[in-house]
Design goal:
This protein is α/β, with parallel strands linked by helices. The protein is built from 15 helices and 9 strands. Helix 11 packs parallel to helix 13.
Length: about 400
């Protein structure tokens, strides 16, 4: 839907929230995702939905177009492979109407550039005071955004962080399809009235938990905060949300955390989050490297840098677990280890004797360290099996 001049001026003056959704071959999920957005109690003039087509080859965009016919605040754009600093004209990014009878994507799989590029493209187009990223297979619980956006507008915080829950397909089906009544849909819940109000650095040290997941979709971001700090996602890689989220915390002046359960994270075993091929491993190394570079930001307090290295140690251990648990071929393991060493040659950890020893071993004898971890894992698994007997 290409906006007219009048509609565009109205959009610029009224917009409070931009919701950005990358879409790639999710015809089964994108409909429920969009419908959940329109059960938030928000006026359509107050928000926009920017759907970024990442070269879908199924009927995802046909589903979007059907819903778009009922809502004037949905905009479709095509993903374009760019760097975070590059821009495209509005004419280039707006998705023109597709002629009847043509397939959803003539370019095929080669046009797939990944969610990071889609989100960057969405941010370039966004006009809302705040930005929310939503994954195309996830859902929002009813009326949650009304609470979240009100808190953001009242406080003018750079970030407003809320809670989420994980559900698989069967669990979502049992909740959403058990009744056709709109009243039966689950509503967002304030599980605690306590509100966290801190600087970004304090929130990062005291409240950010990388073990829970560095998910960028649970947060409202002030758009001017992202733009003025030039915060964008690494194009073309998975796990780009890990360094992105840390950079946001490290640069935010004010972060609000509320115990609002409003986002449903759909667990799909075939999604990129739950598969780990060679590209995943190399991209995860990139996420670790970009996280490490953030320790070099100017004027960071020592306590913050210490916490950064503790968090990177957690990411590193996950990477090693995947190296020894997923890749059986020693040559593949070596390729991943060499890649990490190349990207982060000076990596080191803090947090006690253990992390310090790991730092020394990995930097001086990385392949010996990997073999030791593999041996240790086998011994641990054998002991657990014996205990069960």
């Amino acid at each position: 839907m290409v906006a007219s001049g009048k509609a565009e001026r109205h959009r610029l003056s009224q917009m409070k929230l931009s919701i950005i959704i990358p879409v790639f071959n999710v015809e089964k999920y994108i409909g429920p995702c969009l419908e959940s957005i329109y059960r938030q109690g928000l006026r359509e003039v107050d928000f926009e939905v920017i759907v970024v087509d990442d070269g879908s080859t199924d009927n995802s965009m046909k589903v979007v177009e059907e819903i778009q016919g009922r809502h004037r605040n949905i905009f479709q754009i095509n993903a374009v492979q760019t760097t975070p600093t590059e821009d495209c004209s509005m004419k280039r990014r707006f998705r023109p109407p597709r002629p009847a009878g043509t397939p959803p994507n003539l370019g095929g799989e080669a046009d797939h550039v990944g969610p990071s590029v889609c989100r960057n493209e969405g941010m370039e187009m966004a006009k809302g005071e705040y930005v929310l990223f939503v994954d195309s297979d996830d859902l929002l619980m009813d009326n949650g955004l009304t609470i979240l956006l009100r808190k953001a507008l009242d406080t003018s915080a750079d970030m407003v962080v809320a809670d989420f829950m994980r559900l698989n397909d069967d669990e979502i089906t049992s909740v959403y399809d058990s009744s056709t009544s709109e009243a039966a849909k689950p509503s967002a819940q304030l599980t605690d009235t306590h509100v966290i109000d801190k600087t970004g650095l304090d929130y990062y040290v005291e409240d950010y938990d990388p073990g829970v997941g560095s998910f960028i979709w649970r947060i409202l971001y002030k758009r001017t905060f992202l733009n003025e700090n030039h915060i964008r996602l690494e194009p073309g890689v998975y796990y780009e949300d890990i360094p992105f989220l840390q950079e946001c915390y490290l640069k935010a002046q004010r972060v609000i955390g509320i115990h609002l359960l409003y986002y449903i994270y759909r667990i799909r075993q075939r999604s990129c989050t739950y598969t780990f091929a060679m590209k995943n491993a190399l991209d995860y190394n990139t996420a670790i490297a970009n996280s490490w570079r953030l320790t070099e930001m100017d004027n960071l307090p020592e306590r913050v840098v210490t916490q950064q290295k503790k968090n990177i140690y957690l990411f590193f251990n996950y990477a090693v677990d995947c190296i020894i648990g997923v890749f059986r071929d020693p040559s593949e393991r070596k390729k991943i280890v060499d890649d990490l060493i190349k990207k982060v040659p000076d990596i080191c950890f803090t947090g006690g004797v253990g992390p310090n020893v790991v730092s020394a071993l990995f930097r001086t004898m990385p392949y010996t360290y990997i073999r030791w971890r593999l041996f240790n894992t086998k011994v641990t698994n054998w002991c657990h099996a014996r205990l069960r007997i």
